[in-house]
Design brief:
- With about 180 residues, the protein is α/β, with parallel strands linked by helices.
- Helices cover about 35% and strands about 10% of the residues.
- Strands 3-2-1-4 form a four-stranded mixed beta sheet, with helices on one face. A two-stranded parallel ribbon has the order 5-6.
- A hairpin with a 6-residue loop joins strand 1 (about 15) and strand 2.
- The longest helix has 15 residues, at about 40-55.
- The radius of gyration is 16 Å and the shape is globular.
Amino acid sequence: MNEYGRSQGSPVEWSVVESAIGPLLLAATDRGLVRVVFHAEPRVREKALTQLRDHLGAEPVESASGLLTGAIRELAAYFAGELREFGLPLDWTLSSGFNRQVLRELATGVPYGTVVGYGDLAGRVGQPMAAQAVGVAMGSNPLPVVVPCHRVVESHGGLGGFGGGLETKRRLLALEGVLPEPLF
């Protein structure tokens, strides 16, 4: 077992797919989708694959047996405006403790087209004074878009931070009808 509780050598498959917010690297194990990476240009892709190899103890293989079929289909439907709730199996291996608790609440408790404040989300997991820690959890999210950290905003209405960049966050919120379409 590695430090994330996974057996060494479990299969990890990956693929890069185009989306309305640029190329996304998707990776899956036999448990489900394990990683989504924004801006998956070659340098970013190589870094992400190295991290997956180090954390999961297996050599990632470019989409071999179809572990990513459902994720690719659902993400395409989401970006086409046809899917409002992901039904994918998720592998939570890359998240633990408080971060995992917050991300699971986010995944199940903040529906499409809505937003939640960092402090509100902290309160939902029983830690009302942990808004800053919720921000750290959002930054550690291994499954952005599917686990919608773009829906977490500042209490005064600001967008807050976002690992994929604020323009990406604006585009995702515009897609969901929370913000007007951004100007390009």
